[in-house]
Protein: DNA gyrase subunit A
Organism: Methanofollis aquaemaris
Amino acid sequence: MTSETAEGRRVIPVTVENEMKSSYIDYAMSVIIGRAIPDIRDGLKPVHRRILYGMWEMGNTHDKPTKKSASIVGHVMGKYHPHGDAAIYDTMVKMAQPFSYRYMPVEGQGNFGSIDGDSAAAMRYTEARLTPLAEGMLDDIDKETVDFTPNFDESTKEPTVLPGKMPNLLLNGSSGIAVGMATNMPPHNLREVCDALYTYIDDPGVTVDELMHKIPAPDFPGGGVIMGTAGVRSAYLTGRGKCVVRGVAEIEEEGKHPRIIITEIPFQVNKANLVEQIANLVKDKRIEGITDIRDESDKDGIRVVIDLRRDAMPQVVLNQLYKHTPLESTFGINNLAIVNGRPMVLGLPALLGHFLDHRVEVVRRRTEFDLRKAQERVHVLNGLALALQSIDDVVAAIRASKSAEDAREALITRFGLDEIQANAILQMQLRRLAALEQQKVLDEREALGKEIRRLQEILSDRTHILEEIKKEVAAIREEFGDERRTQISVAEGEISKADLIEDKPALVSLTATNYIKRLPLETYRQQRRGGRGVIGMTTKEDDVVTDVFVAATHDYLLCFTNLGRLYWMRVWDIPEAVRTGKGKAIVNLLNLSGEERVTTIIPTRDFEPGRFLFFATKGGMAVKIPLEEFSRPRPSGILAIKLKEGDELVDVKITDGKQDVFLTTRKGQSLRFNEDEIRSLHRNSQGVIGIRLRPEDCLVSLALVEKDYLLTVTGKGAGKLIVFDEFMGHHRGTMGARNIRPIYGDKVVAARAVSADDEIILMSTSGIAMRTRVSEISIQKRDTRGVRVMKMGEGDQLVGFAIVQIEEEN
């Protein structure tokens, strides 16, 4: 509804909501179409297109001297892009950077910035010109191959798109943020793009997988390694995907210290920032083992040298660099481009198809232009040939005319020529009257006749146009094709936590109040039997160490509690502590209930079928369950076995289902029987009687008969080796035989199978730890008291030992 004011003006009521919506949509489309998103046909945004066209218009081609950048920027800004010189120059600088563009459209002379983020010199100091490949994008632009539109002030015209012989959007990619959408397209290898385009021309129905035989992945200007092609395939299929790119690094272990040499970094990563970030991670101790970082890069390429400590694991450090720095980066692919004035997300076949449609149109219009010019020239040559045949009459007619207009009319009237032909005769030079020159006219007419027939044949069918495009593609491939720079890895590049941690043995200890600690195994040096030991753990008052074992940092830990429940964690989850540290409360690592405590921890690497967990309880019960039933961890834990009221889980061992087991009580009774006497049950089973106990006795240890000896130790530091053959096999449910005769008040704390070449680490309730060889302990018969294996202080008690396998020295 409209109204008029007193002055006669029309007033149209408009709601603010509708006006904002309309204006914002107009603004958004202006940004999308006219600034941030490239055109599918030439792969360029308006500013890039205007720079290339302006340089071509200035004659700033590769075969001529470079021109001052300020001159180029001024020309482009004055005629085509009135948005400020900084925007134009920054864009041109990037087009001349070999680390930004896979195939540079602009050749720069002077300081055009660096991969370290250094800015280019001012435009008055630098010079530039087009590269040969960029000129190919402008070929035939003067043959009416593309539409032109008035510039910003309508003083001249500019092309709406460049002819482009190759899909530049695939070759160099593009990135831009518009309103509500963004594009991020990676560059590709020219040879591979040519091969894919060739394949698409022959078979427009080609699949993405078939095209990936030609274009397996993007090809970044700085090289690197693409880790897996699953995300790339998704991008080629749907237009969106992820491409994980790693830098190239080599490990050198020659000399005193190992080194990591970085020679390539991922696309769009600032090298100086990368080096600074590595240094900060080393300073914050998030990455250990690095002693020095040097950037030795020069004009020949990137070289970042990282010196490591002698004892560092280079591959672990490199994996940490991949994990925590841009040395491994993810390129999020979003193939958004302008298609027929609309933004669209496109897969690889669509990208090739739309470009091909554009190129077919360009070749068609170019051919029509060439045909028209050839026909016009033949028409002129026909007039010249006719004049040359009657040259005397033509000369006489011209001489008899009073003016050029009269001469033109005389030629048209007497010889049946049109105005164009008459003008050509009047402009003809006298030297064309020579016999040789007359023959040239006839030869040119004949050659043009052949060319006209060829052009007409091209226009007669789309297939012929496609053949012309294939010839151009082959020529470009031959002239500009180069080798792929970015390597492709068949494996996905996700860095797991295991890749960041060195897999090495560690000593794990657990206290009665469930404090757990991990220490490097080399913390404890070997001592002879009866030694005093060193402080292995500082415990809280009234706390004692109850279990120690050796496991690799990559092992799974099956943590069984006194209530028969099972929890999972990895050895690396336990914080590494100093030798005298008390460790970390395990309740902070596992989701334990109020009265629950961990009594047994089993290290393992896998949960393969054919292995079992053998459980023994304080009340002498035994249960056997397949290991694979415990392969699916839950944060809240699972119920492993069912316990009788008042009973507790004592120990768990991994078996193969055919081993002899050895149960030992606190009072020194031991029972040996084969585990096949106990059938395999499912998780949460109660089991059967393993060993029958005397009054006030309880089970303290479970061992497997898998080595030469049984090592039994008591709380007061006594211990002995017994050959397993000393014990005859009995059936389960019996009391067994005497193992050791503890002195008054002493009790058995642990009994395990050992070999003579093993080492053990003994630990006391006060945290004293001692490492010694098994061969230092004497072999004795049953029913003896043993020898002192560790000297105990007043009030101190031995709680157990861990077995360490001796590594052979090189």
In short: Residues 503-805 form a domain with the Neuraminidase fold (CATH 2.120.10.90).
